[in-house]
Amino acid sequence: MKNKSVITLNNAYKNIKAILEKARAKSFKAVNTAMVQAYWHIGKVIVEEEQKGAERAEYGRTIIEDLAKRLTSEYGKGFNKTNLWYMRQFYLAFQNLHAVRGELTWTHYRLLLKVENPKARAFYETEMVNAQWSTRELERQICSLLFERLALSRDKKGVLELAKKGHHIASPPDIVKDPYVLEFLGLEKHEKHSVEFKSNYRDEARDV
């Protein structure tokens, strides 16, 4: 009887856990989409402000620095000069908002913006969606020059098969800890939430 109760309890726990993880992932996706779209619009505002004319040229050169000071004091360091600069680049690189993929996080797009070749950037974007790459996996593929290796290789299928080694798909409990999402929501970012991002973005944590 006792063993039967334990089994029943374990099944209930697993079912509840699955429900919670599904709900958290769904909530994350909604927040992430809103955040990425908001950052696109912020980038658009910055670019349009810069293009207002010669008489505003001096203001245009300092707009990001001035905005960073004001926004950071009110909304946190997610709006420092570095991130505002990425928002500006984000709008310039993806000027069609409808083409922005809801499956990708802001961290994905920050990594994509480091890829200067538009064709390579489009390739990584497509592969990310198709293979559900985590941000760590995307960084690994970019650093391994996957696009360049495919462009030079006659055995493109073989290169792609090799690229799958080390492949990692983020689980819902992982993606809801994204520090950019926590910052966007105005939630306190605990040490345990950001530890895995520190090694990858140590240099970017400081303003340029």
Would you summarize the structure shown here?
The chain is mainly α and 208 residues long. The chain has one domain. Helix content is 71%, strand content 0%.
Task: Write up this protein.
It is a single chain. With 208 residues, the protein is mainly α. The chain has one domain (2-205). Helix content is 71%, strand content 0%. It contains eleven helices and no strands. It has helices spanning 2-50, 57-75, 81-93, 106-112, 118-131, 135-143, 146-152, 156-163, 172-175, 179-184, 191-201. α1 (2-50) packs across α3 (81-93) and α7 (146-152) runs antiparallel to α8 (156-163). The longest helix is centred in the first third of the chain and has 49 residues, at 2-50.
Low-confidence stretches: 166-170, 189-208
Helix/strand/pairing class, anyone? mainly alpha
How many distinct helices? 11
Record field, number of beta strands: 0
Shape: flat
Strand content: under 5%
Q: In whole angstroms, how far apart are the ends?
A: 65 Å
Helical percent range?
A: over 70%
**Rg for CA atoms:** 20 Å
